[in-house]
Amino acid sequence: MIQWRIMTVFLTENFLLQSDAAIRLYHEYAQALPIIDYHCHLPPQDVAEDRRFGNISQIWLAGDHYKWRAMRAAGVEERFITGNASDWEKFEKWAQTAPKTLRNPLYHWTHLELRKPFGITNRLLSLDTAKSIWNDTNAKLQLPNFSARCIMQQMNVELVCTTDDPVDALEDHQKIAADRSFNIKVLPTFRPDKVLQFAALLPDGGRITEQSVRTYNAYLDRLAEASGLEIQSYIDLIAALQIRHNFFHENGCRLSDHGFGTFGFTIPDESLADACFRKLRLGGVIDERDALNLQSAILYQLGKMNADRNWTMQLHLGVIRNNNTRFYRQLGADSGFDSITDGSYALALSRFFDQLDREAKLPKTVVYNLNPADNAMLATMLGNFQDGAMPGKMQFGSGWWFLDQKDGMEEQMKVLSQLGLLSQFVGMLTDSRSFLSYTRHEYFRRILCNLLGGDMQAGMLPNDFDLIGNMVQDVCYRNAKRYFGFG
Predict the structure, then answer these.
(1) Could you report how far apart the first and last alpha carbons of the chain are, in Å?
(2) Taking a C-beta distance cutoff of 8 angstroms, is the pair 217, 283 a contact?
(3) C-alpha to C-alpha distance for 187 and 180, rounded to whole angstroms
(4) Dihedral, CA atoms, 295, 205, 377, 445, nearest 10 degrees?
(5) Which residues pair with residue 164 across a beta bridge?
(6) Residue 25 in contact with residue 469, Cβ under 8 Å?
(7) CA 152 to CA 146: how far, in whole Å?
(8) Of 57, 82, 425, 462, which residue is the least packed, with the fewest Cβ within 10 Å?
(9) 117 preceded by cis ω (within 30°)?
C-alpha cells in the first residue's frame, strides 16, 4: 500500500522558512519591522489625493508590466492587457493566467498580495475563483481604510522615495509634507535620465538622429523653464541642473537615480562637451564618441552634486529597452518589452568611480545590475571604493527587476556575503508602481531569514539569535535608516 506523505500547505505563516532557526528569525526579528521603501515608482499624486481605487484591476493590473508579459506569454490578446476591454475582463484574463505562472515569482506575489491587505487565504486565484475574489477585493476597496494612504499604513510603511524628473514642480510632495495628519514620509528622487538621452530609446541601439535631437531640445526647454535659466551652453546646463538639484534637496530629496543599458564613461573633455552641446542646441547631430564624452561630463558633474549634498547616487545597469518596435510604436515605453542586456562595463564603471574619488567627490552609491553574470564583478568593483568614511558607502543593490525573485535575491546576497559585507546591506525596495507591492519586503525578509537560518541550522553560523537577529534587523530596516540620511 502506498503511503502518501502530507505536504506543507501553500503560503502558511512559515512560507519560505525551511528551518526552525529561519522561522524564529523571521517571526521574532524581521516580521514587525517598518518598511523603508527607498526606490519606487508610485505616483505621488495618488498619495497626495489619497486615491481610492474603484476595483482590483485599477490598483493591481494597470501599469504592471510583469503581469502583462505573463499574460502575453499565456496567449492573452492585447486588448485584455493594455487595450479597451473592461476592468472585469482584464481581471478575468489575469485570473485565467495566474495558474499558468507556477514557479514564476508572480504566483507568489499574487497570493501574498491577496493575503495582505485583502485577507484572502482560503482560495488560489483561477478562473473558477475569479468572480468571488473580484467581489471580495472590490468590497474591501470601498472601505474607509483601503485608500492609497491607508493601505500604506496597513503595510507598516514608514517612508517611500518616488522617482521624479528634474523638471517636476514637486507640488504633490509639498502637499503631502504639509499634511500633518499623514505620518508616512514621501520624498522625491532626482532622476535626470532625459538630460543624458541625446538618442532615441529604440532597439537599434539608440541612434542620434535629427528627430532625437529635437526631442532632446524640447526637454531642455522644459528644464530651462523649470530652472529659470536660459540653456545655450554646457555650463548653462550644469547650472540649471544645480538649481533643480538644490530645489529637490529643499523638498526632502536625498537620492539621485540613473538608468543605463551598458554603462559607458570616458574621462571628460569639458571644452569638447561644450562644443558638442552647443551643436545639439542648434539642432545638429553628434557622433557616438562625442555623445559619450558629453554624457560622461554631465554624469561626472551630477556625481559631484550628489557628494556635495551627501546624497546617495543610484545606478541601474543592464537593461535593453523597447525591443519590440511594433509594440513600442503602439504602446510606448515601459510596456513590458524590455530585457537583460550583456556587454562589459567594468572598466567604464571603475573609471567613473575613480575620477570622482580622486577629488574626494564620490558620493554614497548603490548599484543595481540586471544581468546576474555581473554579480561578482560588481561586488568586487564596489569594494575598491569603500573608504572607511561610513559603513557600506558603496552598496551592491538588491535583486532588481528580473532578479527580484527568490533565486536572484539569494544569489545577490550570497555574492555580497562572500565578496563584501552582507551585514552592511541596505536591503530591499519595491521598484513598483503598485500600492500592493509592499509584500515584496516580506518576501525578501523571509528569503534573508531562510538563508541565515539555514546556515545556523547547518552549523555554518553561530547559534546566537541575538547576533544573527540583530543583523537581520539591520539589513531589513536599520541600515537603510542610517545610510540614506532622510532626517
Answers:
(1) 66
(2) yes
(3) 15
(4) 100
(5) 190
(6) yes
(7) 9
(8) 462
(9) yes
Q: How many whole angstroms from its chain centre is CA 77?
A: 28
> For 370-409, how does the pLDDT look when each residue is reduced to its tens digit (9 = 90+)?
999 999 999 999 999 999 999 999 999 999 999 999 999 9
Query: What Cα–Cα distance (Å) separates residue 37 from each residue in 52, 126, 203, 267, 477?
Result: 21, 30, 31, 34, 10
C-alpha cell, 2? 502506498
What backbone torsions phi and psi does residue 196 show, to the nearest 5 degrees? -100, 0
- The CB density around residue 52, as the number of other CB atoms within 10 Å, is 16
Distance CA 203, CA 319 (A): 11
Q: Which residue has the cell 554646457?
A: 234
**Residue type, position 456, single letter:** M
Contact status, residue 137 vs residue 115, Cβ threshold 8 Å: no
What is the β-pairing status of strands 364-369 and 339-340?
unpaired
And the C-alpha cell for 423?
551585514
32 pLDDT more than 90: yes
3-state helix, strand, coil in the chain (%, to 5): 50, 10, 40
**In contact, 266 and 294? CB cutoff 8 Å:** no
Q: What is the CA radius of gyration of the chain?
A: 23
- Cβ neighbors of 255 (< 8 A, separation 6 or more) are 38, 39, 161, 189, 190, 311, 312, 313, 314, 484
Q: 403 Cβ partners below 8 Å, 6+ apart?
A: 369, 370, 372, 409, 411, 412
Q: Measured between alpha carbons, how far is 238 from 382 in angstroms, rounded to an integer?
A: 27
Distance CA 239, CA 210 (A): 26
Beta bridge partners of 316: 259, 368
- Pull the grid cell for residue 137: 477585493
Q: How far is CA 338 from the centre of its chain?
A: 15
Helices and strands, number each (H, E), in the chain: 20, 9
Give residues with Cβ within 8 angstroms of 125, minimum separation 6.
94, 95, 98, 99, 110, 111, 114, 133
Average pLDDT value for residue range 186-202? 86
